[in-house]
Design brief:
The complex is a heterodimer of chains A (292) and B (424). With 292 residues, chain A is an all-alpha fold. Chain A has 12 helices and no strands. In chain B, the strands form 4 sheets. A 5-stranded mixed β-sheet of chain B has the order 2-1-3-12-6. The chains are: A mainly alpha (292), B alpha/beta (424).
Amino acid sequence: MNKNRIYPTRFVFGALLLYSVLFVLPSVMGLGYSFTDWSVYSDSIHFVGLQNFATAFSADYNYTRMLVNTLRFTLVTTVVKNAVGLALAVLLTKQVKLLNFHRAVMYLPCVLSALIVGMIFKSVLNPKIGLLNTFLRGMGLNFLASNWLTDSKIAFRSVMVVDIWKGMGYIMTILIAGIMSIPQTYYEAASIDGGSAWQCFRHITLPLLVPTLTVTTVLNVIYGLKVFDMVYSLTNGGPGFATEVMYTGVYKEFGLGRYAVGTTLSTIMTLVMLVAGFFMIRHMVKGDGQEI
Amino acid sequence: MKKILALALALMMLLGIAAVVHAEDVEITYMASQDWVQDAEIALADKFTEKTGITVDFQIIPADQYTTVLMTKLQTGEDLDLFGSQAGKSDIVTQLNVEKNAVDLSGEAWAATVDPLAAAETSVNGKLYGQPAQDVSSVWAVAYNKKVFEKLNLSVPTNYEEFKAVCEAIKADGMTPVYEAVADGWHHQLWFCEMGVAIEHAEPGTAEKLNNNTMKFADSAAAKQLVEQIKEMADLGYWGDNYMANEYNDAAKAIAEGECAMTVANQGFPADLNAQYPDFPAEDIGFFVMPLLDNQVLNMNPVGPTRFIYSGSANIDAAKQYLAFLAEPENIQYQIEKVSKFNTLPFTTAKDAYSPEISAFYAAYPEHGTVYQTSVNYVNPQWMEIGKELVAVLQGDQSADDMLKNIDRNRADQATAAKDPAWN
């Protein structure tokens, strides 16, 4: 390898400084504050050890449910966005009329702000006057009309569906790029050998898309663990506490003036993301034949 | 030389523009929850701008997010001049920390004209920190359509069983008995907190014991029964099918169009309804107290939304001028006249505008009590949380006992953080 082609180490200092000041330092400070009783109710701050962490995992509070909801949201949206995104990507790399129009339509939701999407779907999913239930009732499907966002048994699923709708176009776009990078000669060879469409997908497209799918999985997992805006705009964690996730919990704790508990929850999520990120990046780098 | 001259001229021009902009563009921001700023106040703010050149930028936040946004802004010291908040002598110390976050207004000329009861709820150590923004004489009660009651030959219920019978009769007639709005997040818990007067009537001394930490909500049989009755109302269909998605802004529409017969409202509601639906006379709306736990006590609350000046504001003088302008007697009277839900304002200079019907309603309930969000510490700061707890009960996700225990836990957390001697 030509060492002259490697940029000097000092080039990284600027980015490293910004990253340290804007990300690492606040995280470390947050970790420090999570061992205190910092709150709006008192000007003094005292060290309280692991008390906030005990609170975060106590059965008396809802935080473990928030963590479970966050992990469930991450798992479901990652799997479904990848699956639907892949299906759309395969469809939209075929010879289809108005191909770019279809791609643009599927991609469009992801350029909208989550708050705008939330407001639109709050209206669409209104049980009485919403577009969806009105449509279902109009079709004679009254039994399908539901309290999409106001029934604690289905509200979280509704939130996940809206998020999947919003995010699948983005995943589709990345996967389209992945599929288009697969040489056509493989498909031609398979075709000569009599390979069916399914066999081509199973034995050519899918294996060669694994690196791209790994990237989309990492993106989805990080996004899912950080989810806030979609839940906030659609249900604000309700009805009751049914759709609370960790970051709506952090926001609520700050609102109640319990800053130390808020930073503790944030610290827990930072640790979860660090662990998840470490293993996922290690997996990705292994795929490139490198070790970390 | 020419370059230096050009540079100096450009610099002077910029400084001149900055000075002009600074002099002319004094703008104060006023952040408040929805429904706290009335059209009449906005009109007065325009007059204030004409008079002083100071503009008022209203930042209206949805009710379910307001407390969180306010607390975050106060903590981060974000750009803010005036803010609205519910008052309450305990909460303005423990939650708002007004001695640090708000400006002492005791020296203002209008401070002496604030009604003494309201002033007590906005003062700390004898210093006044807030200016009442709304009518606090009004009580939250069941507003009912008199025509529906006449048609179905119903009379005002005086206990819970009679109320259920009224609801059944209305339901049988094809109407939703009660318009309840849960989507806003602030309304449905009125059934619980306002009925603190009924808990107090059933178990005298409860508020004091709760404040002394010698009793918890979970220990109160009346509180548990109250929550169960609220759930029963919803389960029996008295709130209709859509109460979870209903918004309070549509309450007048639901009553005027005959969809619902009752709703929990204050005494400004009839005039408000009439303003929106002129064919519906305000006199057709009557009131009775919420009859849960067989309540017959008038639920008073001397506390309401209040304006505070943020201590970190760069425009404290301008904000003080604005509050002084609003408190001028003619401007107080203007608000009482123009805001249909105001019958008076808590200033000694105000002349009330009670209708005979409303005066009769107040006279019908000689026994008065103070609601729990005011008389019990650490209840009002968790208003929205109590709403969520109640929704979890209504949805069958938790029991009444769980809800009361959670309220106790949240109170204990706040009291401990506030170093309340009763908890430490």
